[in-house]
Amino acid sequence: MAAYVIRERAVPELLVFDHVGMPQAGTQVPAGGVHPDEDLERAVLREVFEETGLRTVSVVGQIVVESKPHPDTRRPRRTTYFHLRTSATTADAWNHEVYGDGDDAGLIFACHFLPLPLREPLADDQDAWLGGINPRWDTVTDDRQ
């Protein structure tokens, strides 16, 4: 699943992160797998916490289930996108060491918020479903090119 964590300010903002020392990974939203016997909402909250350290989030709702091949392995992959919200007073930026049992455990993520609509696309087309929250965010602004 993947998390669109929105912070409402003068302009709504999306929580994203970059891998410290790995610019080739691109800017991403929190995302990951579901443990056995874990429901999707609990999984998305866990992934947001593991990848960003953020606990002050709540699930607004499910947006879409996407089916497409994994970009590296080309194996089938289903991703459920969720809309979450966090407080307007959440810090603007921070670094977080990822923990858990995933492949990214121990990596450092530079977390920050980007105003919507986005000016640049996210890695692996993770921005594709922002229009499920607000149609104005469905496409990246003209600066995308």
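That was protein one. Protein two is written in the same sequence-then-structure order:
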Amino acid sequence: MKNKITDTDLEIVRHLWNGRTPYQEIAKKIGITTNTVRNRVNRMIEDGVLQIIGLVDPGAIAGHSSAFIGIKSEANKIKKVSQQFSELKGVVISACISGRFDIIACIMFNESYTYADFIFNELPKVKGIVSIETFFVAEGEKFNLRYVL
């Protein structure tokens, strides 16, 4: 079972928006010791509730693009479909949601891995999909993704 994130943990995470912020600087800003910041960050990483990663703007990388795909799933397979979707090549995130779709996923493409590759080679690996709708990203504000290709 994962530990709950405390208010202090959230304050640390807010200051980690720039993943290069020194723990000492965070400690001074929120009034705790550097060791406390380090220990809490390490605990959150070990618990799987925090990752410190580099993000990229896919629009700034030549030949790259991204899309959101809304997925309708068979009613009793939503969680399984989302999990299977998350394992496909190019998938940055897959999450169960409310609304007209059951799952939303963000996928990254490049010149050697296209939307057609995804539809014809990856998508058939997932059983239980009823329908999909794709929304290609034209551009975005604060739109940075984990690089997965």
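DSSP finds five helices and four strands in the chain. Keep this in mind for the problem set.
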